[in-house]
Amino acid sequence: MIEKTFRMTFFLKAKKNSEGDLRHIFLRITVNGESREISTKLDWSKKRWSSKNGMATGNKDDALRLNAYLDSVRIKVMQARIQLMEKGKDVTADSLRNLLLGKSEENQFLLEIFRRHNEHMSSLVGSEFAPGTLERYRTSYDHTKAFILWKYGKDDIEIRKLDYEFISDYEYWFKSVRKCSHNTTVKYLANMKKIVLDCVKKGWLVRDPFLNYKLTKREIHREALSDEELDKISKRNFSTDRLNQIRDLFVFSCYTGLAYIDVKNLRQDQLITGMDGETWLVTHRQKTQAPTRLPLLPEAMKIIMKYKNHPIVELTGKVLPTPSNQKTNAYLKEIADLCGIKKELTFHIARHTFATTITLANGVPLETVSKMLGHKSLAQTQHYAKILDNKVSEEMKALKEILDSKSKDLNKPKSRKPRF
């Protein structure tokens, strides 16, 4: 990579949870428009700082000493730049930062690797990765950074220092410090494992620290609404338009199985006329990019027609007007209270309700439900959709009748043939 532009400057950064005058001093190196920051580990008053010149103001001894130190840092940056050029290596913001921090190419660092992974993933969002996947790995990066500071008191650690103890302590940190549930902890550890396995493949790690470390999620009982509960919500007329609108969005999801974000993103051009002459919904799940195709039930069509002329629908081309997820779930709790429903009502319960109460409990095969939910495997559907007790009861009654019939046949007296 040819260096076209190069710039370095010192700046102040506010301290976390601090209302005082002192600020951290950072160095920002920018090469070809890409920047990296390095902490000087020094603090300075914002009232005695020139943002324009990137240096302390005034002629007091402490200001003169600080500026002299900053000048020495500038010289070190230029020396590092020359060193890279003499070795025929690319001068980048990363290479300069690593050289100044003593990070050689042989010693790969975890957060640097994690950051590069996320940048690579970011460039592939929309083609290979969903936006939610990138957001999950960015959150994992932030957690890893906080854990390293908590455990080692450092900004980063060498990848070769990762071992079973690191993983074990990381799990402990999630559960004790971050107060995460077991399954949430497993999700974050799985993200870390992907980064680690990449390092193993590239030869930066001799041994996988996750070897013999079990990442097993605990099964969670996923609630769904019963026919009676869904009917109670569907028929309730609320005193405010906002509650009626949220009710409609929720019921729409109960009859389509769409997650909140997929309802929010659903466009008019994703409603087509199928080969059977009925209106079909054809879309892709944002979370997994898996295709979803299903004919719309009358209850869902009624809601679509209700909002056909809504100003937001006409302006955006969306199928339904959808507020934020946070507001939606807050209003759902209010709806549950008004309807006397004891279950913790969230938008995700609608998806479970579609899988169980609407489809499986009414005889729709698991394979068909899986396809309509946009799942990539039946295992995902089995995890989401549990057959209701009344369905099990019906099947067992039918089995009981078959067994009773067989038992009667066996107990019938057999007619003997006459002997001649």
Written overview of the protein:
With 420 residues, the chain is mainly α. Helix content is 51%, strand content 12%. The protein is built from 16 helices and eight strands. The strands form three sheets. It has a three-stranded antiparallel beta sheet, covered by helices on one side. A three-stranded antiparallel beta sheet has the order 6-7-8. Helix 8 (241-254) runs antiparallel to helix 10. The longest helix has 26 residues, at 61-86. The model has no long low-confidence stretch (mean pLDDT 87).
Summarize the entry for a quick read.
The protein has 420 residues and is mostly helical. It has helices at residues 61-86, 93-100, 110-123, 131-152, 164-176, 182-201, 227-235, 241-254, 260-265, 298-306, 311-316, 325-339, 347-359, 366-373, 378-384, 389-411; strands at 6-14, 22-31, 34-45, 49-50, 55-56, 271-273, 279-284, 291-295.
Topology (elements, then pairings):
Layout: E1 6-14, E2 22-31, E3 34-45, E4 49-50, E5 55-56, H1 61-86, H2 93-100, H3 110-123, H4 131-152, H5 164-176, H6 182-201, H7 227-235, H8 241-254, H9 260-265, E6 271-273, E7 279-284, E8 291-295, H10 298-306, H11 311-316, H12 325-339, H13 347-359, H14 366-373, H15 378-384, H16 389-411
Helix pairs in contact: 1-2, 3-4, 5-6, 8-10, 8-12, 8-13, 14-15
